[in-house]
Amino acid sequence: MQTALQQQRETYRAARRRMGISVAQPVVQRPALALVPRSPAPAAEAVPEPAAEPFPQQSQPLKPIREQERRSDYEAHLYAPLGHAIRDAICMKYGVKLRMLLSRSRKIVPMLARHEVMWELRQRTNWSYKRIARFMNRQDHTAVIYGIAAHQRRLDARTA
């Protein structure tokens, strides 16, 4: 008993035979260029190291370095607040559910909370606009730039 696919194949084979169409075998072409093995490179000559110059004398003492600047990037990462903690704290502050915060809603309360989260993430972490946009379920970094600027304007208006 043949399946429907086998019957269809057999029908097409019979039709090709009746029309005199045959399937040609693929032609294998040889490469036009022959690969030649490379000869080993000559050994490099030893180059003497230049003599070390003495350290220049400082005319002024160095400025003290702040603690934040002294930390390495890894240590700064360890002490930086997590994005989820910032986002959850602001959700609690505004009484907004996370789903509403990450939505496309233009209602005033979720929008204000969203802008504040973006502003806090930019201030407290070293995240890029693109990373904040992905974290906030946005497609484009320009929404983050706008949100940060809008929140900064509101802060400036409060202090003025």
Automatic annotation (TrEMBL):
Residues 39-68 are annotated as: Disordered. It comes from the Bacteria. InterPro entries: DnaA_C (IPR013159), Trp_repressor/repl_initiator (IPR010921). SUPFAM superfamilies: TrpR-like (SSF48295). GO terms for biological process: DNA replication initiation; regulation of DNA replication. Residues 41-56 have a biased composition (Low complexity). Residues 82-151 form the Chromosomal replication initiator DnaA C-terminal domain. This is Helix-turn-helix domain-containing protein. It comes from Alsobacter sp. KACC 23698.
